Amino acid sequence: MAGLEFGITFLRRRLIPNVATDGTLPPVAILCGGTNTGKSTLINTIAGHIVSPSGCTASFTKRLVGAGHEEDLKAVTAAHAGFHLVPTSELSTPAPRRHALYADHNPDWPRDLPIVLDSPDIDSSDPKCRDATRLGLGFADLVVWVTTQQKYEDQMGISFLDEAMQLLPRRIDVFNQYLPQHAGALDDLTRKYGERWPNHKRAVLAIPLQETTGQGVLPSDAVKDLRRHLADSAAEPLSRRIESLEHGLGNAQTALTGSARHLLARQDECEEMIHQFRQRIERSLKQPIREFAGHAGYFELQDALVRVLQPRLKTSFGDLVSDISRKAGDAYSMLRSTLFGSSPKQGPVDPIAERDRRDLEEAAKLIEAARADMLDRSRAAAQSGKALAIRLHDELRLLDWPDPAALRNRLRSHLTERSRTHMQPVIDKFEHDLADFCDGNPEIIATMRAVIPGFSALTGFAAAVIAIKTAVILPGVTEYLLGPIGLPVYERLAGWLPANLLHFVDQLSLSREPFMSRTYDAFEKTRRAIFLEPVEWLTGPVEKLFQPVEIDRGDVPLLLEQIRTDWEAVRADWETTSTRSS
Q: If 0-12 CB within 10 Å is exposed, 13-18 middle and 19+ buried, where does residue 64 land?
């Protein structure tokens, strides 16, 4: 049993139930041992009838079976949270309850004996047997270790006794099925067990091998010494309980302190691994995403500008701007066909869709590369043989991760949703602020109309340039429509206009208005945040693996000291009560 598990078991199953009942719980002894050591036969013999299945059927029960008076059994199970007292008739059900004690009312159970529990075989191949016996240890004040000439050196049994002796200071060693030729083995058991647990108080008994009666029990004389020792253990229940809890608390403090030290060392190691992981993600994933050129592609703002200015200027320059974009895209397609032999691109190019497509594809590639790098690094670290690195690599491989097509679909859905919920409010606010600006500065609109008379071709071109010069938006379109070749469509457009008009537009520039710069910043920050969110799809599950638990460095010592202080007060009160009773 690991230190943390032992400490929790002691606190939850031993200290808390006994303190909560003021030390008044009936004494309990538990019979433990391996397969075919005769545990069930012993409890049946003490009871005088069958209370626990024995022989070939015993290994199939996998449950705690008790013998004692009904009121005592009820008191013990009620004190342990989640446990239930269940009649033995349910032993035949195929699925055992994990937190249950199977027992029937036994009015003939000797009053001088403790409750006796029969536990599943601790060397069973079914881990539920060992788990049930461990739960039974939480009830017990005394361990009765039942073994034989074939079993007393079994390492699984020795390991279990190590756990039991951390909880309890006393036991009875029963060498069962004893024959005269086993004298050497009995001496060996006495010596080896004494050397392994020198500070524990114990009695060593040998019960000769003999036939059971027709009722499936041994002659009553066979368990005479065992009954005497059980009666002695129950004679002074409070003083024995004080001794037992004092012993368990000391070991629990040691175990929990060691576990806390180990957890803190593991926590430090995890924090360093998280720090390195975050640095790599920052360099290889987050920073490249922040630098996407598309974050400065304000095409949605361009559309908003057209919607606001077009009705106020009384010219359809928005249509002309769209026409220019379409023709630029057609020119680019024809040029690619000439240079690279590709077929001309069909249909107009949507700058927003093209911008998003490029950035989404780049984001997907970056995320996939970061995940591959993470797995490569964890694989290399696991080859060092460190337990934490091996476990981390195994768990990283088990994380559910979408295939390339599913990842891209998820990214597209994410961008669509966030554009609606996060980006659209930025665009709406820009449109509202721009409309307020125009309505609050009618002289600017009037001047625009005067400089751009009528609906001539020059009017449309001039309006397009106003869009370019005032909002500093349209030049970025060339990057997405024309790619690295970059036909300077809009630069040519500006060159076709009279110098005095360009000078006027420069003077008129909206880009100097505070709401414009705020809008640019909000657009870029919002779009960066939208593209950075999917990074958490990768890093979130990974960081949970790095840090499964957090404890403060002062928590465990302070809590243990408080438990010790509270126990000292309870113990003093119990000792006073015990002295008065004696």
A: buried
